[in-house]
TrEMBL record:
The keyword Signal applies. It comes from the Eukaryota. Keywords: Lyase, Signal. The lineage of its organism: Eukaryota, Fungi, Dikarya, Ascomycota, Pezizomycotina. Residues 375-420 are annotated as: Disordered. InterPro entries: Alginate_lyase_dom, Chondroitin_lyas. Residues 54-323 form the Alginate lyase domain. This is Alginate lyase domain-containing protein. It comes from Sporothrix stenoceras.
Amino acid sequence: MADYIPQTVTLDGRELASIKARIKTGADVDDALRNALDLLTTEADGWLTEGPWSVTQKTKAGPSGNLHDYVSQAPYYWPDPARADEGGLPYIQRDGQKNPEVLTYTDRIYLEKVFRSVYVLALAAYYTDDTRYADHAALVLRTWFVAPATAMRPSLNHAQLIPGINTGRAIGIIDFSQSYASVLDAAVLLRAATSWTDEDEVGFKVWNTTFLSWLVDGDFGKTEHAEHNNHGGFAAMLVASIAAYVGDTEQVAKEVAFAVEEHVPKTITADGQQPAELARTRSWHYSTFNLLALTRLAMVAERAAELHDSRAEQTQEGKRAERGQKLWPSLFAAIEYVLPAATGGEDKWPHPDLQFEQFAAADFVRAAAAAGHEPSQKAVPLLQMPPDGDMWPLRPAPEQLDPVRAPRQTPGAAKPGVAV
């Protein structure tokens, strides 16, 4: 992978190559980069002894009866104590309170491990050229998505089901949309590894093409996409990311146009508030969560347009993609609304939140700063970084930093990312 400039989906491949060159030569390697690399390789080492995982490892099939179907349970729904004689059915909602019963569905647990391990291992392989990391990432990715005996079917018909109410729902798409774009970047990084074969690449692209059709054309995908909250933002980002990976730049453009013309105007007020997120028990978390999705979408738009430009032999260095330019300005009011709390803490957030985590804003503020947003640029030195270490110097793109579930991430463990 020494001279490989990856055409990544969200991350800027040229930036990754520049970072790698700094590491290789030892030039301009500051403490932040050195610490991030140590954090990355330590976690990658932990993943080498775990997995692979498969949806077929669950002890019983879900509603379809097919072990290859992904199944998860809605995290905030609990048995109704008034219906104890009926098994608590139908379940009732307790927003922000996660029912531990959901952990009995191992697909969600394993999915988080797959997503996190593949991303960390692929990044570690790219930066260190250690084939052990690439080999294991390829095995994990192949097992979950490609190998016929173990692969997940490319749909989410039974995600976040609610006992006594349904066998799956559109909202369950967020099980994937929170982190899957990072897996696509990982798959691109693995293209230079001999352990990720041409057959693997073809199989993974076929899987994603089918999944993309399910998302765009199916009722669940359409319903989730139309939500005027973080679900709609993440759905647009998920579709755009997959479309960019399989080379469908037209679909990427559609998602960005949707965000600029429909989603942002309906979810973000002129002064930058996000009413649907502010109504939640974790108003800060969900406000930052939606901005994570939308800033990632802006980055996907940039990468897709840059790839289009390069194919058209328009090679102006550093050119900001037109589609990304349209989306970024529409987000600045919302980013500016959270900046006081992002830099000054909970006392600067005028809304209730059950578990305020100031560092949740760190990544998307830095992404906005990189996009030229001056208030974000001024805020960067005042940001609080994640307590378990800062990976931004190696993967400069917004990631979810404050998962709902405690405890925080430890090396080699699945990064919990349950937020709906």
